[in-house]
């Protein structure tokens, strides 16, 4: 009977997948289809667990096949990271009107991303204090034990590196190896290499305009092709989201979820506060938060449901340039850098919260201003190179906890609520990159207020 139930579950899964395809053919809005997939995954996954149990043979067997869709979607997104980084950063250099803007754009974007990450770390620590989570202990089940063992292996890659050594590790020694994502710091290494290519292009274009123009055409063609591949992958989002949420709900330990409920609430509280801080910053640069939210709803909702800053990059750049009035260079720089540097949610709030929770268990006074500043500094530096797909937050947490000489078991203990928190974290990451683009565009006086105030200038995804 077990095999029969697995086949029935898979047939139901396939039927729902087919219904999403039908919705696409009827031209139902992309964001609507993604949210329907999110809700369907929650319901279908919960039903599997209620009927057959989180570790039952039927659930395990069905999820093994369903995981092909979910994991396949995530891997397609991971496949896009390096090409996206390269063509977006180099493409940004081809859009810069004069080298004088290069320094202003790059410094402004990086300063905004890193400064807001430092603030996010403070907010995360404050949330832990407010909800009395410092020193909290969470239930450790079989799933958490397995995760902790796996995390111990992952930490070995960064455990023996000091912060200065980690910074040196960002520099690429074999760019072809980094393009294949062979190292934990490959993302930031490709960013650095792409920036060198962009600077070289500016020099060649100045001395030899003919070759510069030829290279620019090549990059534009590559950009168009990569973005077309991105569109094809993003069309799979409803299917991927449905499969991922089905797995998350079907295999989650509900007792663990209840146990971690306070952590989830504290995490969302910190993310919401950080989002409000972003809105205050917009007010500070004389940009209406209300108009901003109207214009960014599509990309932010996509980031929330897809849990991928990399997947949201095309919509991110398009929203900045076509709906918000940000210049092309600032949009490309902020979107790409924000995908791998200074992610407020995954590399700011999350690792800072975990460090604050576990520090008191090691006899450390969390209320010490010196230690708080130490956490903030480590989190900010470690925010370089966090990949903009699922799993980036875990890697960021491992680096931070390892640098602070804190146990990594806490990462495994909260793994069961990762999908729930990761949606909001990703949305915060994308929002911060857009914020950096606006501030940069304002600084170089190329922000188009007319486009920003035009209610008709809204990006609508038709994927």
What does this structure look like?
It is built from 21 helices and no strands. The chain has 463 residues and is mostly helical. It has one domain: Orthogonal Bundle (Proton glutamate symport protein). It starts with a helix and ends in a 10-residue tail after the last helix.
Features:
single chain; 463 residues; mainly alpha; Proton glutamate symport protein; 21 helices; 77% helix; globular
Number of strands: 0
Stretches where pLDDT is under 50 for at least 5 consecutive residues are none
Radius of gyration: 22 Å
How far is the N terminus from the C terminus? 40 Å
What global shape is seen? Answer: globular
Largest β-sheet summary:
none
CATH homologous superfamily designation: Sodium:dicarboxylate symporter
Order of helices and strands: HHHHHHHHHHHHHHHHHHHHH
CATH class: Mainly Alpha
Share in β-strands: under 5%
CATH topology: Proton glutamate symport protein
Indicate the structural class: mainly alpha
Mean pLDDT: 85
Main location: membrane
Subcellular location: Membrane
Organism: Carnobacterium antarcticum
Transmembrane segments: 6-23, 35-52, 72-93, 105-131, 186-204, 225-245, 265-285, 371-389, 395-417
